[in-house]
Amino acid sequence: MNAPLTWEQTARTLAVEFASRAAAHDAEGSFPFENFEALHQAGLLTLAAPQTLGGQGATLAQLGAVIGAVGYACPATALVLTMQYMQHRSMGRAPPARSWPEPLARKLVAEAAAGVSLVNALRVEPELGSPARGGLPATVARHTPQGWRISGHKVYSTGSPILRWYSVWARTDEAVPRVGNFLVQAGLPGTRIVETWDHLGLRASGSHDVVLDDVLIPHDHALDLRAPADWVGGEPWLQVEMAVMLGALYTGVAQAARDWLVRFLHERKPASLGAALATLPRAQEALGHIEALLLTNQRLVASLARDADEGAPLSAVHSGLIKSITTGNAVQAVEQALALTSNHGLARKNPLERHLRDVLCGRIHTPQDDSARVAAGRLALGL
């Protein structure tokens, strides 16, 4: 009798189908709804939620493996899934790190188990930019007898075509404002999606604008309200989880580029050479460099995930550096592949140019390279 598939093996099986559609979704800028139906049917949408809330309670290492497998095939799908996993893991945090009302958390996990139901944080704004850079959000939550009324404009709302829930970063209208997350159900009166996403990479991620105009939500949908100063520095556990999953995602993209390159080097036989490009020492050395970059990433991601799963002390500074290193290595690996393949690598009939466009997006996620390095430098200087 065959042993049941692991979650990573299940993801790799699904990834074959995801990869067959990735080029079309990229060209059209269309959202891969069918991928999420497949993920739901396989039970992977609730993988990160704690067992106490009805989820499967996967370890961070297991989640990274799943994200890497999906990222290999369709990084846009993997990014939306990453955001689902981040939100579900946050539900299980002990106070004060987690302030999800338990009935609300159970409701969202149950919905994801029953059907295609996803949640993501809506944080970035046209004026504010990334909240990680500081500043109060322009999105305002007004406390009324009926509930909170939310008004604002969010950009880069990854997965917006399929999200059932938004965790909206906003400030209160109090004399001394508090800042935090407000859970808003997609489709409520006053919510609308503005289809603005027309990006170089991750074109299938549906990262459109979401506008909220006096949207009414219950009082208990305010998830975590704090004084602005209490948010400075972020949450170490959040930084670690993002570093693992984003590192795995973009390493998956680079691995896909590497695998295509290997096939190309064996198949390409220039008449002037009379043999495959794979026989050239220059090609072998360049591929060896790519192998070193990918091995470094795999080791770093695995080590960080293991530390987190074993309860070792977490450092936001170190995880920020790992995120910066792994995404940078992934970009460099794909660029190396492009340098070996010349015009073939840039031809739209081949996937390498798409992998390059997708992997470049890794640099944009928080923390960006300059922030990660400044934080590490200040720590080293004792500042």
Automatic annotation (TrEMBL):
The keyword Cell membrane belongs to this UniProt entry's keyword annotation: no
Acyl-CoA dehydrogenase C-terminal domain residues: 245-366
Superkingdom, natural source: Bacteria
Domain annotation Acyl-CoA oxidase/dehydrogenase middle: ranges: 125-215
Keywords: Flavoprotein, Oxidoreductase
Stretches assigned to the Acyl-CoA dehydrogenase/oxidase N-terminal domain: 10-84
Keyword Plastid: no
InterPro entries per record: Acyl-CoA_DH_C, Acyl-CoA_Oxase/DH_mid-dom, Acyl-CoA_Oxase/DH_mid-dom_sf, AcylCo_DH-like_C, AcylCoA_DH/ox_N, AcylCoA_DH/ox_N_sf, AcylCoA_DH/oxidase_NM_dom_sf, Mito_Isobutyryl-CoADH
Alphabetical list of PANTHER family matching this protein: ISOBUTYRYL-COA DEHYDROGENASE, ISOBUTYRYL-COA DEHYDROGENASE, MITOCHONDRIAL
Protein name: Acyl-CoA/acyl-ACP dehydrogenase
Organism the protein comes from: Acidovorax benzenivorans
